[in-house]
Structure formats: structure tokens, C-alpha cells
Design goal:
Structural class of chain B: mainly alpha
Strand content of chain A: 15-25%
Distance between the termini of chain B: 19 Å
Shape of chain A: elongated
Number of helices of chain B: 11
Shape of chain B: globular
Helix content of chain B: over 70%
Number of helices of chain A: 8
Structural class of chain A: alpha+beta
CATH superfamily of the domain at 1-107 in chain B: RNA polymerase sigma factor, region 2, helix turn helix motif
CATH topology of the largest domain in chain A: Immunoglobulin-like
Number of strands of chain B: 0
Strand order of the largest sheet of chain A: 6-3-2-1-9
CATH architecture of the largest domain in chain A: Sandwich
Order of helices and strands of chain A: HHHHHHHEEEEEEHEEE
Largest interface: A-B, 68 and 88 residues
Largest sheet of chain B: none
Oligomer: heterodimer
Strand content of chain B: under 5%
Order of helices and strands of chain B: HHHHHHHHHHH
Radius of gyration of chain A: 24 Å
CATH architecture of the domain at 1-107 in chain B: Orthogonal Bundle
CATH class of the domain at 1-107 in chain B: Mainly Alpha
Number of strands of chain A: 9
CATH topology of the domain at 1-107 in chain B: Rna Polymerase Sigma Factor, Chain: A
Distance between the termini of chain A: 52 Å
Radius of gyration of chain B: 18 Å
Chain lengths: ~240, ~200
């Protein structure tokens, strides 16, 4: 070990070494808790920890699988889902969106990329196949919505991530199918989680694999039935 | 690594094969509170994660409790997978490993059960395992081989069994600060080697 390496270890490498020691797992309890708290509050440090997790992850191959006791899943479900299951699912979904609203745009992009991975072939029967999602954003604006289309409920749910509408203007949601002119789904109500009902022809367009766009319009929406203001966010629908 | 992990999971649970991409999608769906995805993820990965908990905690009852807590964390924190560079299996293993190490650090004030922990020895990979060992494992193994044997053992013991600095220092009969210097230097060498 050279002197230069020692200096690197003690100065520039100190933080990085702490991240490595955390991942290796050797830190005493108190220090480990401090580092865990730091991971939650310091994204740059959290990235260094993640990099070390990646570097060392090859060793985890040596963990041999062991079947857990058969009744353990039931106990786990009791712990997590003691309340009404459908209620829990809905609340959980939107509280998850609330988390994303505070997450970075990068996280959302990564999320949507993950969602875009083609669908798995196993256990198709249990999958909620009739939901489509889209992340709507634009390079030139900070407007960002996360959209979920639920075919069974004929409902479009919008979660507002970032970007305010200009004073005295409204956001209007459009569905764009192929080369057809955009069709309005209506003015997006103000709020962090809002819904628009969709009917007949609009449902068909959405399910045909359309894109969504948001334009900036006069209060109450476009007077012409076509977008009149700038498009502030766009995105393709993806099956989940 | 993913290939062999998946092979392990499949062997242990006799389930249809899943690719890392399949597991990714399950985690993403779990982040949206999809119960059927959670059930399937449990079926596909609980044996691997139980293996992690059991090896570190070396106690069935505690591993049972830890595995439930691990899946509670997966259910509530699955969003975080999206911002990690880890492969899906490695992310799940990291949740299980970190939680088990948290537990053992909180539990173990002294190094009085090192001998017991050491009874869970490294499984020797058979010819099949060697044949399917993929890039990540091969890379870390060859980099560990560049370290002195004792130091490589200390790194493996820390990572796989959750040994603390204090426990490693006692086992290798060196002062705690010496062990810390050993391991820090070993980690630096590993980083350099893996980045070559």
C-alpha cells in the first residue's frame, strides 16, 4: 500500500470507505444506525452506498436458498393486510404516488422505463391487465403528471408531480391516437390527485394505444375543441 | 449472478422459471401495491431471502421474524428499487442482508457466538454452480483471489455471515484498528480491481 493510497483512503476515500464498510456490514450498531440515517437524507451518499452494493453483490451468490416455514406467508399477510384488502390496495397506490411526487424526476423516468418492460408470461390470470399508465412531461417545462387509466372504471386518474398552471389558465388533457386530431378528455381539475371520467369513443382511442398530452388553455378549456396553447407535457401509455 | 440465483430459486421452490426482468416487473407492481405480484414475488424469492436471514442470524425463530420484516420492507419500500443500479435479485438480497445485519448488530453486544456462526460454512459450489456462475460472481471472486487469503476470508466472512470488526479482530487475533485497516485496504483494492 503506497502513501498516496493511504491519503486517498483517509481523505477523498473516507466517505466512500464508510459507504463500503456499511455495505460490508462490519460497522458497530451505533455507527451503522448513523450511516442508515444518512442514506435516507443524503442522495449523493446513498448513491455511493448503492455503488458498493453493486460491486460486492457477486458474493451473495453463495447464499443457498432454504424454504421458509409454510405458515410464514400467512403470518406476513396478517401483518400487512389485516384491514380491508381492496381499501388497502387503493390507499397504498395513491400514497405510493405521493412518494413519487417528492422523488426526483430521474426516479420517475426510471420507474416508467421499468414499467415499459414487456409483460411477464407467468401467472397472467392474476394480473390487472386493464390498467394503463403514462408519465407526462416535457423537456421545456417542469410540468409533470402521472396518469393511470382504469378501463373497468372508465376513469383517468391524474397525480400531479410538479409544475403549476399559469395564472388564469387551465391544463387540458388530450388523447392522441395515430394521425387523428387530438380529442379532449377535459380540463384537469386543480389538485394533487384528480379524476376524469371517459366514455365510448375516447375509451376506444385510449385502449388503441394512444398518447396523452397536456396543453395550456384559457380558463374552462380550449374554445375551439382543439389545442390552442402550448403543449406542456406528453407521454405514451404503457400497460402495467 | 442473476442466472445462478434464479436457478437456485427455481430448484428450491420448483416454480416456473423467471428472468431478472420478470422479477423487476414484480417489484414495480409491488410498488403500486399489487397484492398478486407480491404473492408471486414471495413464492419466487422467499427461499433465497430466507437463506440470507438464516445464514446471518443463525437462528430459525429469529430468521422467521426477520423474513417477515424483510417482506414488509419490500412491500413498503419497493419504490426505491427504481433508483437503484442493483439487479432485482441483488436489490432484494440487499434488503434482506441489511435488515439481518441490523438485527444482529442490535442483538450481539459481544463476540460470544462466533463459533456457532462459523458452523454455517461456505457451501462449496458444485460443478453445475461453477458452470452457470455469471460475470458478477466471477469478477468478485477473481478480485478476492488477488487479496491475501486471510483478508479475502475476512471480507467474505463479513459480507456473508455479518461478522463485525470486533468479531473479525478476535478471530484473526489482531487489534480492532488493524482489522479496520486491513478491510479498508482490501475494499480499496477490490474497487480498483473491479474497475479494471
Amino acid at each position: 500500500m503506497t502513501q498516496a493510497n493511504d491519503r486517498d483512503m483517509e481523505q477523498n476515500g473516507g466517505e466512500n470507505m464508510l459507504a463500503a464498510e456499511y455495505v460490508l456490514g462490519v460497522l458497530p450498531d451505533a455507527e451503522r444506525r448513523q450511516v442508515a440515517a444518512r442514506i435516507d437524507s443524503d442522495p449523493a451518499f446513498a448513491r455511493e452506498v448503492d455503488e458498493w452494493e453493486v460491486r460486492l453483490s457477486g458474493m451473495a451468490d453463495a447464499y443457498e436458498p432454504v424454504d421458509p416455514p409454510a405458515d410464514l406467508k400467512q403470518a406476513l399477510d396478517g401483518r400487512l393486510f389485516a384491514a380491508d384488502a381492496s381499501q388497502a390496495q387503493r390507499v397504498g397506490f395513491w400514497s405510493s404516488l405521493a412518494f413519487w411526487r417528492t422523488a426526483t424526476a430521474a426516479a420517475l423516468v426510471a420507474m416508467v422505463v421499468a414499467l415499459a418492460i414487456p409483460y411477464l408470461t407467468v401467472d397472467q390470470g392474476s394480473i390487472t391487465a386493464e390498467r394503463l399508465v403514462a408519465s407526462l412531461s416535457h423537456d421545456d417545462t417542469d410540468v409533470h403528471y402521472f396518469v393511470v387509466y382504469d378501463a373497468a372504471k372508465s376513469d383517468v386518474g391524474l397525480s400531479h408531480v410538479t409544475g403549476a398552471r399559469a395564472e388564469g389558465r387551465d391544463f387540458e388533457l388530450w388523447v392522441i391516437e395515430g394521425s387523428n386530431p387530438p380529442a379532449s378528455l377535459g380540463v384537469i381539475p386543480v389538485g394533487s390527485n384528480v379524476h376524469l371520467a371517459v366514455t365510448g369513443d375516447l375509451k376506444r382511442r385510449i385502449e388503441a394505444g394512444a398518447a396523452f398530452a397536456i396543453s395550456l388553455e384559457p380558463l374552462g378549456g380550449s374554445p375551439t375543441g382543439e389545442p390552442t396553447g402550448p403543449v406542456v407535457a406528453v407521454g405514451d401509455l404503457t400497460t402495467i | 449472478m442473476g442466472v445462478r440465483l434464479i436457478a437456485n430459486v427455481r430448484r428450491a421452490t420448483n416454480l416456473a422459471p423467471m428472468t431478472p426482468q420478470d422479477i423487476s416487473k414484480l417489484i414495480v407492481r409491488v410498488s403500486m401495491s399489487d397484492r398478486s405480484a407480491f404473492d408471486l414475488l414471495y413464492r419466487q424469492t422467499s427461499a433465497k431471502l430466507y437463506g440470507v436471514c438464516l445464514r446471518i442470524l443463525n437462528d430459525r425463530a429469529e430468521a422467521d421474524e426477520a423474513l417477515q420484516e424483510v417482506f414488509v420492507k419490500i412491500w413498503t419500500k419497493a419504490d426505491r428499487f427504481a433508483v437503484s443500479d442493483l439487479s432485482p435479485i441483488s436489490w432484494l438480497v440487499a434488503v434482506a442482508r441489511n435488515h439481518s445485519i441490523d438485527r444482529i448488530r442490535a442483538r450481539r453486544p459481544a463476540a460470544d457466538d462466533i463459533d456457532e456462526a462459523m458452523e454455517v460454512a461456505d457451501p462449496t459450489p458444485g460443478p453445475e454452480a461453477l458452470a452457470v456462475a455469471s460475470g458478477e460472481r466471477a469478477a468478485i471472486d477473481s478480485c478476492l483471489d488477488e487479496l491475501e487469503a486471510e483478508r479475502a476470508d475476512a471480507v467474505r466472512g463479513a459480507y456473508l455471515n455479518g461478522d463485525s470488526y470486533a468479531e473479525l479482530a478476535e478471530r484473526f487475533s489482531v487489534p480492532l484498528n488493524t482489522m479496520r485497516t486491513w478491510l479498508r485496504r482490501s475494499l480499496l483494492k477490490l474497487r480498483e480491481c473491479l474497475e479494471r
